[in-house]
Amino acid sequence: MRKEAEERRNEILDAADELFGQQGFDGTSTNDILQKVGIARGTLYYHFKSKEDIMDALIERYTERILSAAKEIANDKNRAVYERIIGVVMALNISNDSGKEVIEHMHKPQNALMHQKIQKVIVNEVPPILSEIICEGIEQQLFHTPYPYECMEMIVAYTNTVFDDAMVSLTNEQFASRVQALIFNVERLLGVERGSLQHMMRMFAHE
Could you say which of 47, 54, 137, 174 would form a disulfide bridge with 170 (CB–CB 3.0 to 4.6 Å)? Predict the structure, then answer.
């Protein structure tokens, strides 16, 4: 019974995912989801209290996949600190292949609430992952800052806003300038020599 309930829950999420992608969150009704899955309203409400509850479950599914990949890289002690930082940021880049459906959803005007919720998850969940690596770097005397978490929080908040196409529109020249400024300030925040983090710019590849 538990397996059947989980399968039914995933069927509802899959249907909602597809409908939100086609019609947007605001343009999709619970009736649309019911018809697509072929279930009674009571069955839907057994699993989810509302349409927003379904969206929250979808966001959790998206972010769980993305964050688990980032945590796996962060915990790989066989990789150097710098390499793990780059790997974590690349794993969290939801514009890559593994997260295309997320970015397609969240950048639609009718999915503004979904966008906001995903942004909130990133700002709250990413700094702890990165700050643990920074703390290791401090122990290895690679970095020199008394505020590892706060540094990562500032960086994530900045990159999550300025480098989000839905928030700020940048030309290629403006983007390149922002990346240079970010690297310059990250070096100061982490207490490393100027230019020592230039090799990390590849994480900001902009197409």
Answer: 174
Residues of the chain with CATH 1.10.357.10: 66-204
Give dist(CA 85, CA 188) in Å, integer.
17
Tens digits of residue pLDDT in 4-36: 888 999 999 999 988 987 888 888 999 999 999
Pull the structure tokens for residue 164.
């989000």
The SS3 of residue 108 is coil
The distance of Cα 142 from the centroid of its chain, to the nearest Å, equals: 27
CATH class of this structure's domain 66-204: mainly alpha
Q: Helix, strand, or coil here: 171?
A: coil
For residues 20 and 28, is the Cβ–Cβ distance under 8 A?
A: yes
- Whether pLDDT at 109 is above 80: no
If we measure between CA atoms, which residue out of 85, 90, 160 comes closest to residue 123? 160
Spatial contact of 145 and 138, defined as CB atoms under 8 Å apart: yes
CATH number of 1-48: 1.10.10.60
Token representation of residue 30: 């619970």
**Residues 51, 25: Cα–Cα separation, whole Å:** 9
